[in-house]
Write a structure and sequence with these properties.
By secondary structure, the chain is mostly beta strands. It contains one helix and 23 strands. It has one helix at residues 8-17, and strands at residues 37-38, 49-51, 58-61, 64-69, 78-83, 87-90, 101-110, 120-126, 146-154, 166-168, 180-182, 196-199, 204-208, 214-217, 234-236, 252-258, 261-267, 269-272, 296-305, 317-324, 330-333, 344-346, 351-353. The strands form seven sheets. The protein has a four-stranded antiparallel beta sheet with strand order 8-7-9-10, with no helix packed on it. A four-stranded mixed beta sheet has the order 11-12-13-14, with no helix packed on it. The longest helix has 10 residues, at 8-17. It starts with 7 loop residues before the first helix and ends with a strand.
Length: 355
């Protein structure tokens, strides 16, 4: 093509050939599709939509780059949209009482070569239709060649758009072979073999396999243990001879990730005084991020005891049930089983999924 001419589509297809695979069934009928989106950056600030410093009826789009596929015609290639400075966009005046809407901030491409008469890319706001409540407001119809950047909730009679009215809905894209930054809920479910994604909400890496499934690489973890205070009547364990908790060490816990799923791990033991409350062996409840979505029940080791009138039962009772509940409590169940109350118990080795 030296000194010759060729269609712009050729350049766009060169760009498309260097971009990541989309990874969804809907795109497979059009094999020249890419995963469009915003170029990632440190803390992902490119093309981010934010409120004005003094909120008014505008929003600001930061500098950055986005890659937008042509959806007017299959195989028409990919456009690079470059925004080299902050751009301020106006939000249309709000409706009156009882009128709510959802507007969308987008990067859109118009190409007269495939549809219409305009040939340009724009940062623009597409206004939504009014609804009777904020929850009923839906996104408007968007141009076919567009990358959505943010949803803007426009309440009834408002005169300004604050940060809380802006929802960041950017998706990101990388070149072929790059590691895609994406939440687990939005991750491509049909990646190519070896296609790698970093799941931002679970801090793990997922990759495509040759059989069409996905695998997970969990980063090396050196998660520190948390040693909680125990409740009245309990003494956390130690490790030397004569220590509380049958030398199982202090009660402690931590959250780890296994194959993309958060798990709780427990260790250690404690000594319990007769009559101590069993509803919660801890001095307080667990923080929200350490609470399971359903009750988790285990049988754990305790001091052995006999049962009156049962022959040869000197050590027939040697476990106690413990519940980890959705209120963040750790509860001993039937601590009075047998002739002797539970005076020590162990939580060593307990593990369960949190989600």
């Amino acid at each position: 093509m030296q000194a010759g001419s060729y269609p712009a589509r050729t350049d766009r297809l060169v760009i498309a050939s260097l971009m990541g695979y989309p990874g969804f069934l809907i795109d497979e009928a059009t094999p020249l599709r890419i995963r469009q989106g915003v170029r990632p950056s440190y803390t992902n600030q490119q093309m981010k939509v934010r409120a004005a410093p003094t909120p008014n009826m505008t929003v600001i789009v930061s500098a950055g780059m986005a890659y937008v596929d042509n959806h007017d015609a299959g195989g028409a290639g990919t456009y690079v949209c470059v925004n080299d400075a902050d751009v301020t966009l106006s939000i249309a005046p709000a409706g009156g009482a009882g009128q709510f809407r959802k507007d969308c901030v987008i990067a859109s491409v118009y190409d007269a070569g495939t549809a219409g008469s305009a040939s340009e890319w724009r940062l623009e706001v597409i206004q939504g239709t009014y609804a009777a409540s904020a929850g009923a407001a839906v996104r408007p119809s968007l141009p076919p060649n567009a990358q959505i950047l943010a949803d803007v909730s426009v309440g009834a009679s408002v005169t300004s758009i604050a940060a809380g009215n802006i929802s960041d809905v950017r998706q990101f894209t990388v070149g072929l072979g790059g590691v895609l930054s994406v939440s687990s809920a939005a991750a491509p479910n049909r990646p190519h073999p070896g296609q790698t994604m970093y799941l931002t909400d679970t801090d793990v890496f997922r990759y495509g396999k040759i059989d069409g499934s996905t695998g997970t690489v969990t980063p090396d973890q050196n998660i520190p243990w948390i040693t909680p205070a125990v409740g009245t009547g309990y003494t956390t364990g130690g490790t030397t001879a004569g220590s509380p908790g049958n030398r199982n060490g202090p009660i402690r816990y931590r959250k780890v990730i296994r194959d993309g799923t958060p798990y709780m791990e427990w260790d250690g033991g404690a000594t319990r005084a007769n009559g101590a409350a069993t509803t919660n062996i801890l001095a307080g409840t667990l923080p929200a991020q350490y609470i399971p979505y359903a009750v988790r029940s285990f049988s754990v080791a305790r001091n052995a005891t006999s049962i009156t009138s049962v022959a040869n039962s000197s050590s027939v009772v040697h476990t106690v049930k413990v519940d980890f509940d959705t209120a963040g409590q750790v509860t001993l169940v039937a601590a009075t089983a047998g002739d002797v109350e539970t005076n020590w118990f162990s939580l060593v080795g307990i593990s369960y999924p949190l989600a």
